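Narrative summary of target 7.
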Amino acid sequence: MEELITRVATAAGLNEELARKAVGIILAFLQKEGPPAEIGQLMAALPGAQELADAEGGSKGGMLGAIGGLMGGGGGVMALGGQLMGAGLSMGQIQTVSKEMFAVGREKAGEDAMGAIVGAIPGLGQFV
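Modeled conformation, tokenized:
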């Protein structure tokens, strides 16, 4: 997990605390929205991922998250963007964090698992 946090922080120009928060928010979102088998593979491949997802799983997304929630269900990728912006990330940083996370996911859990996750969550492909 520390390798992932460091890579995300370096790539997006974030401090480690904010990188950790962003990764946790994304992991919690993936657990909620993604296919269980492949998410299980990803979480197992990243020691500490479950604890980080649990720590950030209750985060709210500020106004954008609320708007996403009003649009039905959890708001999907739009609500995720709202949570990350609420945490202090810019749109460019969100894209960088997402791309780096999915690159590490492909290295650790495999292309098949990550492809299934991206394919199962509408709109996610534009960020990875």
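The CA atoms of residues 28 and 54 lie 7 Å apart.
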